[in-house]
Specification:
The chain contains 14 helices and eleven strands. By secondary structure, the chain is an alpha/beta fold. It folds into two domains: about 70 residues; about 260 residues, 3-Layer(aba) Sandwich (Aspartate Aminotransferase, domain 2), CATH 3.40.640.10. Strands 1-7-6-5-4-2-3 form a seven-stranded mixed β-sheet, sandwiched between helices. Strands 8-9-11-10 form a four-stranded antiparallel β-sheet, with helices on one face. Bound molecules: pyridoxal-5'-phosphate. Pyridoxal-5'-phosphate (PLP) binds next to helix 6. One of its GO terms (biological process) is carboxylic acid metabolic process.
């Protein structure tokens, strides 16, 4: 026992040292992937080693290839940081090694999912009767929500897709926005609905799905409309109320990919962006983005628990069910999995309603501040309306200059941000999603981008 205590105490120290690194520690360093493999690799060990030595060597050898996504100066993709309470609770989840697939395996993991379900629905303004599954992320949540929708729209025309599959089934029209996220395409592939056979509803200049012609595109048969809250480039949200009204009028199922944008509902100042979102049928969102829990963590939410359960449930004679218990496997594509609700519960408990709202609002304010600082540069053009935590910034008039600025910022490693190509135009892509990011970090980041603009001129 003493050995385990020494091991875990030392590990906590290593973790705290990582988090307490000086603020100017590089966010990332150029590293040769093969060198990392070489130092971490070598032949399969012949036999056992001391666990403490294993952990010490991991901490030492992993360091050069770690990207500090949770230290406040990472502005790439949409990467949340880690709230202290969520981190600590996640350690306990691993320590307890609970499997939330079935209530009998862990009454506590089941109870935490039940509690988080209620809290999340309230926080995000979604129907209180909806079901929630704890997934790896929005990708798996998109698969699950679309599976529920696929099953339900076919059931309404007398086809049981879960039993009989899609061969010979009535066709399902899948309408997607022009600027849907790539994970919607993969979800449709996995569900046998095809990435290419979708019907595309055009988007406006901010990437929001338009409504004109939507009714005709949906048609009169079984149909699913995939809407989006939080365009991964611009942060824009589809006009949820209008889209849902048209879609429901046509009898279609509305699935919302709201990986980060759904969290706008938690901030009183941003809630209008997702007005009407509670009217949809299923939603996908992430915990590891804006809620700042560790990877991996996402949620699928479904207004019809029956459709949700039909699509996901599984049974076997040896899998015991408990009356009144929550069996997590009914709501996700997985059977056994990590007890993600430990970290989610701790995040929600430590922030509370106003804390989550403030986190969302602060990230949006800091994004606007970042853009204002960059806009002082004559070479800079801001390409989107900065409504949430995403901004697109172009330097000069050719793609090469913008790419050179990004490369210089990444090379220096003081902060990290990436690039994107939207409608054929390359830009720097800025996302503020980490609770640890301060106004000072944004000032450092803006100064760093301006330095890169100067040296690439
Ligand atoms: C990030 C994102 C996803 C995918 O989420 P994962 O957490 O990577 O599974 C889906 N849709 C949107 C809009 C996103 O921003």
């Amino acid at each position: 026992m003493d050995e385990i205590r020494t091991l875990l105490t030392r590990t906590a120290e290593l973790a705290a040292d990582h988090l307490a690194a000086p603020v100017d520690t590089p966010v990332s360093r150029p590293v040769d992937p093969a060198a990392l493999v070489a130092v971490l690799g070598g032949p399969l060990p012949d036999g056992p080693s001391d666990p403490l030595a294993v952990v010490e060597s991991l901490a030492r050898d992993a360091a050069p290839g770690l990207v500090r996504t949770n230290a406040g100066r990472y502005f790439g993709f949409v990467e949340g940081g880690v709230l202290p309470a969520a981190l600590a609770a996640d350690w306990l989840a691993s320590t307890y090694d609970q499997n939330p697939g079935f209530a009998v395996l862990s009454p506590t993991a089941a109870a935490l999912e039940t509690v988080c379900q209620g809290w999340l629905l309230e926080l995000l303004g979604l129907p209180s009767h909806a079901s929630v599954g704890f997934t790896t992320g929005a990708q798996a949540a998109n698969v699950t929500g679309l599976a529920a929708g696929r099953g339900e729209v076919l059931r309404r025309v007398g086809w049981d897709v879960d039993a009989d599959g899609l061969f010979g089934a009535p066709p399902v029209t899948v309408v997607v926005g022009e600027e849907r996220h790539a994970t919607i395409g993969r979800a449709l592939r996995l569900l046998g609905m095809g990435e290419r056979r979708v019907v595309v509803q055009p988007a406006d200049d901010q990437g929001r799905m338009t409504v004109a012609g939507l009714r005709e595109r949906i048609g009169d048969g079984p149909a699913i409309v995939c809407a989006q809250a939080g365009n991964v480039n611009t942060g824009a949200c589809d006009p949820m109320r209008a889209v849902t009204e048209v879609a429901h009028d046509a009898g279609a199922w509305v699935h919302v990919d709201g990986a980060f944008g759904l969290w706008a509902a938690a901030s009183p100042d941003h809630r209008d962006l997702v007005d009407g979102i509670g009217l949809a049928d299923s939603w996908a969102t992430d915990g590891h983005k804006w809620l700042n829990v560790p990877y991996d963590s996402g949620f699928v939410i479904c207004a019809s628990p029956e459709a949700h359960r039909r699509a996901m449930t599984l049974s076997a004679s040896y899998l015991a069910r408990q009356d009144g218990g929550r069996d997590g496997t009914d709501w996700t594509p997985e059977s056994s999995r990590r007890a993600r609700a430990f970290a989610v519960w701790a995040a929600l408990r430590s922030l509370g309603r106003t804390g989550v709202g403030d986190l969302v609002a602060r990230c949006c304010t800091l994004t606007a501040r970042f853009v204002d600082l960059l806009a002082e540069e004559p070479a800079v053009t801001v390409l989107n309306d900065v409504v949430l935590n995403q901004a697109l910034v172009r330097v000069g008039d050719d793609d090469a200059r913008t790419l050179a600025v990004a490369a210089e910022v990444q090379r220096a490693g003081v902060v990290w941000l990436g690039t994107t190509v939207r409608r054929g135009v390359t830009s720097l892509r800025i996302s503020v999603s980490d609770h640890a990011t301060t106004e000072g970090d944004v000032e450092v980041a803006a100064a760093e981008v301006r330095r890169a603009i100067a040296v690439t001129a």
